[in-house]
Amino acid sequence: xxxxxxxxxxxxxxxxxxxxxxxxxxxxxxxxxxxxxxxxxxxxxxxxxxxxxxxxxxxxxxxxxxxxxxxxxxxxxxxxxxxxxxxxxxxxxxxxxxxxxxxxxxxxxxxxxxxxxxxxxxxxxxxxxxxxxxxxxxxxxxxxxxxxxxxxxxxxxxxxxxxxxxxxxxxxxxxxxxxxxxxxxxxxxxxxxxxxxxxxxxxxxxxxxxxxxxxxxxxxxxxxxxxxxxxxxxxxxxxxxxxxxxxxxxxxxxxxxxxxxxxxxxxxxxxxxxxxxxxxxxxxxxxxxxxxxxxxxxxxxxxxxxxxxxx
Length: 311
Known about the structure:
The protein is α/β, with parallel strands linked by helices.
């Protein structure tokens, strides 16, 4: 459930770091982006990743979200800490607490705060937390979600993310820069893939609902993390940043599959995108973050449609 990074010779400085969540569906993209950028990555958690799980060799170190454990020794000489882990029921984020909300809160809030505090005590210089748009909660259709607006999460998942953000920001101090990234839905081309079931259902002629949401590619999430690690401290510390890119519905996704796979099954009707609450990303774009937009989406959906190892 965790990852450790030791980037080398970045911006003419030697950095060492630690992180958590590297083998998850989102964390994998972050790890791969850092590997591609020349970072040496150590995956930590309860179990080591399988051989060749990542594109390049990685190391492993034990780490957990259990607040009963003090992992301060894991932060020895760590320059930064990236937290992308979540204790939850398989396949669920909202509602991921199942029938045990207390355990969900204990691991994801108490355990996270304990790791933040351990990192600070150990002398770690930067801490980046992967949060969620769920921290905003429900707003009127068409509302543009901007950092600093009132938060009113209606799920335990959203509340825990918000409380962890606030706890981390409270710890920000000279020598310990903190930042939280509020992610929208994350898509990409790694397997298993969030759209595998959707594509399979379409190709098999099953009825599909019209659904719409905001999305960002996992590669762009990795780039956002790099921005947080490499930006000037004063521009990120104690701050929260939205990370989002496209508005997509099931028609947008499956229309490409239809042509790529020469499938004549009926597509779901286009959804009403005006009912969404899009996320404003001006703040992180000002730091140089530029997402892949439609070209990256089209490249990704082509890869998913033509992957013989997929659906």
